[in-house]
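Example record

The entry below shows one chain as it appears in the dataset: sequence first, then structure tokens.
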Amino acid sequence: MEINMKKRTLFLILALGLSLSACAPRALTIMTHDSFAVSEEVVQAFKEETNIEVSFLESGDTGTALNKAILSRDNPLADVFYGVDNTFLSRALDEDIFLTYDSPLLVDIPAEFKLDPQNRALPVDYGDVCINYAIGYFTENNLPPPQSLEDLLKPEYKGLLVVQNPATSSPGLAFLLATIGYFGPDGYLDYWESLNANDLLVVNDWENAYYGEFSVHGGTRPMVVSYASSPPAEVIFAEPPVSEPPTAVLTANRSCFRQIEFVGILKGTRNRAQAERWIDFMLSTRFQEDMPLQMFVYPVNPDAVLPPEFEKYSSIPAETSVVSPEEIAANREAWIKAWTEAVLR
């Protein structure tokens, strides 16, 4: 009798342990760049749907985060890496840090965003880096806004533009790539030398350019390199509230560069099935519709509904300057070095 009771007790303990294990959420770690943001209720919806607990590991800017993912590939810091963009994509793929995953939701994503045929890096969002300008300045001075990159060289626009250093700034690099895509690798330096001669101002980062030098925020320069989604942000965050943005965007004539951000499952993960669930969730309309007001990017899922502010105030370029990820990977450092010597020295 005593032996049977002990067996029964042991059986109940094992059964209870298995039951608790089945109910406990599985943990999933997502490595991101520092600009990543998502609503708490969206993360909670994923947990309730899947019983998977998610934590986020912010790892610096895109380049820094990618370096960490590469250096730790033998013992990965996370299960999933989100935030590598098309300026670093080829390096990520060459370093072979991702597993292939053919998410069923890829069927909904336009081909223009799918830059990895093997689906190791899956597209999540995009944003266009363009020239933003202060509407009031051009109205008050009876000056038409520029309509092309060439227009920026005209004497009437002298001393009006501030840009970011491509060696230290993601939008700065994107704008450099816009000029390379437009003028070609053999012509972009001539353009930048002429732009520099037209009293160009270069600063190290987007925040100093936009909130320090841009005339809308108290600076002296009425044109700045920023994002096509900046005008909606001007309305959303305005204090006091405004009904129209004080800024607009030059989107014509391939003057912008499109950044596409990707997500991938890191090799070495012990949570492959859970990682796939998270990627499916990122591509779903639930997550995609949350992104615009969190990170001011555009969803790649065409079924995602944009916020009213984006529908009303943002401009999407009909055509952007294109430089392939392979070209960027092969020439990024040389292009930046040549730019530095031509513009800063």
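Notes for this example: The two ends are 91 Å apart (CA to CA). Residues 113 and 175 are 19 Å apart (CA to CA).
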